[in-house]
Amino acid sequence: MQAPFFTVPRRRLASGLALGALVLSLLCQAAAAADVLVVTDSRHPVQSVAGARVVELDLPSRIEAELAANLPADPARATAIVQQRLRDGGEGLQRRLGRAYQDVAEAWGLGIAKLPAVVIDRRYVVYSDADVGRAVARIEAHRRTQP
Known about the structure:
alpha+beta
């Protein structure tokens, strides 16, 4: 009679499976909590983390400055040049500009008060920390202490 390689008492197996399910659940929750939004501008650079969405509040004005660069004083010619630049940029430029304005509106809607701001799950925020990883860790530590 050949003995099995590995035998685990049923009670121990059930405990191990329950622990594994708990760990998997916690990992899934951590992944689901990865809704990280960083709100900043060009004067407040940040060290971002993978998966974080970065909103730059001054991006719309920077895009508009690109469109308005080196325009002539004649309003009619300036208008024609800007229109040509918009056409040359095509849908990509339109999407970029639209997204930039949508991001600014979202940050305003969240009531962001200082920069940079790291927001998790649209519920928790850490202000004035340029290290996004550290800010996320602070929020996660706080969440673990709250029931």
